């Protein structure tokens, strides 16, 4: 066994194996590695787009929240103004009602006072007639009695 012949045989087998590997094995491996590199690149690009989209969505949501807070503050101011207006209208209505009640009470008091005066006049007239009858001890006729009573009412 010669070392040269073994070495040459091993070189031939090595080159055949290298050629076979480069022709049939290496292209699918390179293709798989390229596909994997492409998928990784696409994943990184998608992650970057997602990050930008997240930042944009965060800005939009912050703007929406700010606008919502402004609207809430505006609605609260409007509600406060409206409540003050309703309170003022209720106070004005209450004043009007109170004035009506006071006016009605005054009118009723005046009517009662007028009735009391009228009743007092009639009572005084009756007493005056009764006194006059006792003094004169005679009866006055009905027409004269009515005229005298009306005159006394007018004088009182």
Q: What does this 3D model show about the protein?
A:
- One of its GO terms (molecular function) is proton-transporting ATP synthase activity, rotational mechanism.
- Its main location: membrane.
- It is found in: Cell membrane; Endomembrane system.
- The chain has 156 residues and is mainly alpha-helical.
- It has one domain.
- The protein is built from two helices and no strands.
- It has helices at 3-136, 142-155.
- Helix 1 crosses helix 2.
Structure summarized in a few sentences:
By secondary structure, the protein is an all-alpha fold.
What overall form do the CA principal axes indicate? rod-shaped
Order of SSEs: HH
Return the structural class.
Answer: mainly alpha
Q: Which band does the percent of strand residues land in?
A: under 5%
Report the sheet with the most strands, covering strand number, pairing sense and barrel closure: none
What is the helix fraction of residues, given as a range?
A: over 70%
Count of structural domains: 1
Strand segment tally: 0
Tally the helices: 2
Q: In angstroms, what is the radius of gyration?
A: 60 Å
Spatial gap, N to C terminus: 171 Å
Oligomer: single chain
Poorly predicted runs are: none
Question: What is the mean predicted local confidence, pLDDT?
Answer: 86
